[in-house]
Amino acid sequence: MNKKIRNLIIGGIVLVLLVGVLLLLKFLPSGENPGGDSSSETSYTSESVQLFKKDKDDIASLEVENAEGGFTILRQAEGVYTIEALEGFDQLTSSYSTLVGNFASVSAMRMVEEAPGDLSKYGLSSPKTQVTVTYKDGTKNVLHIGDNLPTGNGRYAMLNDDAPVYALGSTVSGSLENTVLDYVSTTVIDAWTAPVSEDDSSSVAKTSPDIKRINIVGGSLTERLGDAPLTIVMGEDNEDMAQLGASTSTWRITSPVNASVHTENTSAMMEAITNGVTATKVAAINPTEDQLAYFGFTEPYAKVEFTRDNDDFALTVGNYADGSSHYVMLEGRNVVYVVSDDSLPWITVDINKVFSSLTVLPFIDNIEEIEVSVDGKTYLFKAEGEDDDLTATVNGNAISTDNYRKIYQYLLSAPAEEINFDKETGPEIARITYRYRDVDQEEVIRFLKVSDRRCVLSVNGEESFLTRTVYLDRLAQNMELILNDEKPVMDY
Question: How far apart are CA 192 and CA 441, in angstroms?
Fold first, then answer.
């Protein structure tokens, strides 16, 4: 094929395409007639049409009716609006104030049909959505809202009665399927904010709230605890106890056992308390008894209570709303929220991960004596001095400070690995007793045999934990090493 013939073919194709476009523009001028009707009844215009123009402050009320029931926005004062049905609830006033503004002056993108013969093709024969704008002088405009435009960027609309059909843009029509619930705040618990200082003093600003108490019932805890709670409290300042030693965390577990809190494994709970809780949506306000049963609040999935600074909060968690969220209610607020499980770390707690494996942690310089009984033998450690001047003996024999510090570390590493739910006990096979210099008090760790591999770890009379007997095997070896002032083995 020579070059001339090829160019003629290409030119012919282009000409055909141009003719096609011209025919399309001639016979389908509107491009939006849902029925494909190109009759003379259609008088399409591409120019925007002003339907009505008022000042926002002229509007007395805005009523939206839709398939979900709708809502009415009332003007309270200049720039102040409310939804009467939401009185007493936290409302998203800025959202519906914007909606009022959208309907102060309304322009259509274009007129679709001036004298429509069949309103059904626009969804306007019996429209499910209607907006009534009532002004302070008593006059009103009614917008009937029909089907979506084929282009998806708005909806068909008709102003009042016996009027042309218009294409109304999504800026105006986009929020008309909202329900009254869409204007209820989704903030369940506000995020904590640092208090504003009353003066310009150089005092250190508060960076986190005082979380004084957490109480959890249900959720993932049900399998092991039933209806019993997991309770975490902030440690009380106690001068005598402070001399005994330091806990691994500011918080302590008081139920179902007495133990220090594992800081890392409980950080999500603490952060959620600080950051607050926000729902994905509101499911109901002023729920009926039937609704409460449906949402799962007659037999809740979980209950969470906590104290932040001086404020008490109580959350009730109901049924699953979907696979990754639950219905939630806050005590004192008659609102049912849908909250993502990611925002509810309290309901997925692993009971065996919230407590610290270190049962006691006394300061080494506060210890006067440590008595160890294992494998039928007793070893008595005595210490004097502190820091670099610390000296120690075992059964009256001097040992190096370094070896004493290492055996001290090994003794503290006696691990609480699991909670002893079964409360199994057996004969005592080992004991560690800490006695303090300045306080007439001691802490006793007892090991009670359960099997050849497991034993109960009893802390100050509470048989709360399980651990492995291999720890005791190494303990017996280390006692003999220390007796000869040899370096203990730290692993087991």
Answer: 40
Strand (E) or helix (H) holding 186: none
Q: Which amino acid is at 318?
A: G
Closest CA to 52 of 134, 116, 149, 125: 134
Helices (H), 276-312: 289-295
Domains of the chain with bracketed CATH: 49-183 (no CATH), 211-353 (no CATH), 364-483 (3.30.1490)
Backbone angles phi, psi at 101, to 5 degrees: -60, -35
Rg of the chain (C-alpha set): 37
Sole residue written with tokens 């004991």: 431
d(CA 276, CA 283): 19
Is a pLDDT exceeding 70 seen at residue 20? no
Task: Check whether 191 has a pLDDT greater than 70.
Answer: yes
| Residue 35: both structure tokens together | 């029925």
In angstroms, the CA 462 to CA 411 distance is 18
Residue spans of beta strands (DSSP E) within 127-210 = 129-135, 140-148, 154-159, 165-169, 187-189
DSSP summary character for residue 173? H
Q: Which residues have C-beta within 8 Å of that of residue 487, sequence separation ≥ 6?
A: 402, 403, 406, 481
Above 60 in pLDDT, residue 464? yes
Cross-strand pairs, 451: none
Task: Give the Å distances, CA to CA, from 25 to 39, 47, 347, 423.
Answer: 14, 16, 62, 86
